[in-house]
Amino acid sequence: MKTMNKFKKTAVVAMSLLIFGVSCNDEFLEVLPTGSLADAQVGTKAGIEGLLIGTYAALNGVFGNRFEGPNHWVTGSIMGGEANKGTDAGDYSTINPVQRYEADPTIGDFNQLWRGRFEGVSRANAVLAALAVATDVSPADAARIAGEARLLRGHFYFDLKKHFNSIPLFDETVAAADIPSVPNTPDVWGFIEADFQFAFDNLPAENGAGRVNKWAAGAYLAKAYLYQQKFGEARTLFTEVIEDGVTSNGLSYDLLDDYAQIFNAENDNHAEAVMDVESANNTGNVQNSNAFDDLNYPYNTGPDGPGNCCGFFQPSLQLSNTFRTGADGLPLLDGSYDDPANEVDNIYRHVFTDGNDEATFVEDPDPLDPRIDHSIGRKGIPYLDWIEHPGSAWIRSFPYAGPYSPKKYIYYRSQENSFTDGSSWTRGYATMNYTIIRFADVLLMAAEAEIEAGTLDKALEYVNRVRARAANSEHWVQEYDGSGPAANYVISEYPSFPDQAYARTAVRLERKLELSGEGHRFFDLVRWGVAADELNDYLSYESQYLVTKFGGASFTAGKNEYYPIPQPQIDIQGSDVLTQNPGY
C-alpha cells in the first residue's frame, strides 16, 4: 500500500462514514443520507474536522464522473487543443461533440461536473455553519478550520466560474430550502476573492502535508486577480508568494531539479506543490486514487505497459510540433511549427492513408524541447521504466486519434501494486497527487503580471528560471542502453524580451510547453481572449490528418468560451431561476 500521511488516512476513514448533502438542487435536500452525522456530533471539534475532511475529499470528485477530476483532462486540455479524446469514435462517445465544440446542455458529464463542484461548496458551507455554533473549538482552531473551508469553497467556486461563468452563489447562511431559488450570476469574483483573502489572513504557513495553507491561498488569490486582469494586485501578491512561500509541510517553494519527479507518486508533497489533491490506494474504494484518469493510458498494453486499457487522452499532433525549437534552442514563436515544411516522419503522415504500416518510420532528427518526452509518449522513445513506446501496438486508431500516448501522471513499472490500486476492473488507478497549482505555474503567472506592468526583465527572469530547469541535461530522457539522450534535445534561455508583445507570446507558449496536459490550456486561451483564433487554427491543422474527428468542426466566439448550464439543473430550479449561457 502507498504510504499515507495521517491526514490522508483519516480522510479515507472519514469519507467511508460521512456523506454530506446541501447542494444547489433538490436531489440532496429531502433525505438525510445514510451514515451522516447528527447535529450534536458535528458540533464538536472532532465532528467539524470530519466535515472538513469530507470537503477535501470533494477535490477528487464526488460522483465518480471523469469530468469531475481536478486535472480537467477534457474541459481544460482536450478543449484547449493539447490532446484529443483518443481511442476510437465509439468509445465514450459523449465526448465526441464536446471536443468538436458542439456540446449541448443535456450532456450528463456537465451535469455531474456542476453537481460535484456544488457538493464541494455545500460541504465547505457545512463546516462553516457547524463552526459558527461550536462550543469546544479554540479561537486558533476556529480561524484555521474556517480558513481551510473558505479556501476550498473558493476553489470550487473558481472552478465553476471558469467553466460556466454564470453560477448560483450561496454561503453557509443560506437555508437549504432556499438554495434552489438562488439564481445564477457572473458577478462572483468578489466573493471568491474574499474567501481566498480570509484564508490568506488566517491560515498558518505550515499546516501539515495534504492540507491547504496560507501560501496556497495567496497563490490562488493572485490567480483570481490575474483572471480579472488586475495585474498590479496579482504582481504584488505573486512576488510575496515566490519570495516567502512554503509548502504546507514547510518546504520553501522551488522548482524540482528533475521535471519528471513532479509526476512521480514516490515524490508527492514536494517543494513545487503549492496546492494538490491527495491520493491513496488499497482503501477499499478506488475513488480515493486517481480514478478520474483510469482511461488515460496507452491502449491495451498488457504486461509491458501501464494499465490494461484504454487509449484515451492522446496528445495532439499540434502539441507535439509545438515542442520544436530552432538551432538556438528557443521555441518557434512565429508558429512555424505548424508549417508542413517542418513536419517529418515522426508525425506519421503516411499512417493516415496506409493504415498502421510503420515500416517507413524514422525518429525525428530535428531540435526539440526536452519536455516533449516527459509529456508525450512517442514511438521509439523510452516510456518511463516500461519499454520504448512501440507505436501502433499502443494506439487503438491512428486515423481517429493520432500516434501519441499520454505520459504525465503515469505510474512506473516498478510501482505496480505499490503506488497503484489494482482492486478494480483495470490496473490503471495511479496514486500520485495531482497539483492544482504548482510553482512553475506560479512563476509563469507572475511573469504575465510583470509583462503587463512593463517590468520585462523580471518576467524574463521567471520564464528563464522555468526553462533552465528544462535545460538540465542530467534529467533528460535517456536511451535505455545508456548511449545518451533519447532525441535531439536543444533548449536555451531567452537572451532578452525586446518588447511587451514578444514577451507575451513567449510566456504564453511557455505555459503550453511547461503545463501541457495538466488542464490549464483552454482556460488560459479564454482569459487571454484568443480562444477562437487559436482553437480554430488548431482544428484546421489537426483536421488535415484526423478528418473523421475534426472535419468541419469550429469554435464559435461568444459561445464556446463557457460550457452550457446543465439542462437538468434548469429543469429542477426553473428557467426563471437559472439562465442558460449564450448560444446554447
How would you describe the overall organization of this protein?
- The strands form four sheets. Strands 1-5 form a two-stranded antiparallel sheet.
- Residues 1-36 have low confidence and may be disordered.
- The chain has 21 helices and eight strands.
- By secondary structure, it is mainly α.
Average pLDDT score: 90
C-alpha geometry: globular
Major sheet size, sense and barrel closure: 2 strands, antiparallel
- Strand % is under 5%
Class per helix and strand makeup: mainly alpha
The percent range for helix content is 25-40%
Give the count of helical stretches: 21
CA radius of gyration is: 23 Å
Poorly predicted ranges (pLDDT <50, ≥5 residues)? 1-36
What multimeric state do the chains show?
single chain
Say how many strands there are: 8
Distance between the termini: 46 Å
Strand order of the largest sheet: 1-5
| Order of SSEs | HHHHEHHHEEHHHEEHHHEHEEHHHHHHH
